[in-house]
Amino acid sequence: MRLRILLVTAVTTALVLATLLVPLALLTRSHAADRATADATARAQSLAAGIGTALAHPGPGGSRATAASLVTAANGPDLPRTSVILADGTVLGPPAHVTDAVRLARYGRAFAYAPPEGGQTVLVPVQGTSGGTAVVHVALTDAQLYAGTLPSWLAFAGLGAGLVLLGLLVADRLGARLVGSTQRLAKVADRLAAGDLTARAEPDGPPELRLVAGQLNHLAGRIEGFLTAERENAADLAHRLRTPVAALRLDAEGLRDPAEAERIAADVAALERSVDEVIRTARKPLRDATGLTGAGGPSCGGAGEPSADLAAVAHERADFWRPLAEDQGRTLDFHAPDAPVYVRADEAELAAAVDALIGNVFDHTPEGVGMRLSVSAAAGQEPGGSTADGADRGGGLLVMEDDGPGFPEGHVPQRGKSGGGSTGLGLDIVRRVAEESGGRTELTAARRTSGADDTPGAGRGARVEAHLGGPSA
Q1: How much is the pTM?
Q2: What is the C-alpha separation between 325 and 329, in angstroms, rounded?
Q3: 417-451 b/e (C-beta count within 10 Å ≥ 16 → b)
Q4: Which of 125-134, 183-192, 401-410 has the highest mean pLDDT?
């Protein structure tokens, strides 16, 4: 934008100056020619008066000698070439031809004309001399005719260049102001897009950009208000769950079987922790909840970056769900390396993602359908969080497969929509955790092993892959 403003200014200024300076330069040239012609005419008339006096009373050879001396005095370096053509054709001074213009001047007419060879010629008749009318011939070259024109043209060119540079300087300052205001607006928009809802634009620049800045600030305020209200509603809803959860805990404590009471109490305690975590997350300031550590955008590493052992978290959640799987006649196989597999995710969020994967199998497949949960290091990396070349970048792959009917043909689960009668939020939790770590999720059919599966409801099966990024070094 700034370059375009400079280009338009340069072209416009050059056209305006050309329109003004070219005619002025031609006028200067014409004025120089008129001045030189007038000077040559005055010289010719002065010489004609002296020649007329010398040739009016001829003596024995003295009159022509006097005239010749006058002509010689009229010529000199850088002076017009001056000659006198007598009536008999004799030429006093530099050579000159008797042309039709000279013959016309002998009739008593003084004039100036431009000969074919260039320059200017002034003819002045000298009457009253013995033997007929003589003619004073003054010839100007092009250099003498337009003397002083080049310095004037150079001055005009310098003036034009100075005006162009001045225009470019003004345009550059104006363009810098416009571009700077636009770039500052773009940076604020980038911060808002990254989740920094405290970013605000400083209205400056032309009125149009100030209006845009004001509307952008208004939009940011509205978004922040909507999100705050939504988070408050989520916290309130989660807080309401505490009463039924407390009732469940009391019911669990009243069970006669101590083992059963302990197991249900542990489940209720886990539910309480989940509810408390929802409330804490909803009560966080928006800036912390969006993962921002500074004005520049999302956290990209450092001491405050979350990190968790994917293998350990998945193993713990698999052990938690295994008793329920056994009660329903399911197999829950778990495979993970012995070494830690570190990923960039909060441990609670990671546990919620694993729970969502396992819970989906329980919710959407018949009893008796088996499942397989596996953890592995990311491709090209070794367990323990280091790559094959020794760099400590981590990252892992979490895979859940089941032997159920699989995903409906052409159906892609989305948040708030599900083909199985659920809210569709389970897989969205997995997707969010993966994407916040810098990874992705993939939904495909399960890679069935050889051999038939006679489990009720068994089908093609579903496979969910969560590629999780590793913590920054």
Answers
A1: 0.47
A2: 6
A3: ebeeeeeeebbbbbbbbbebbbbebebeebeeeee
A4: 183-192
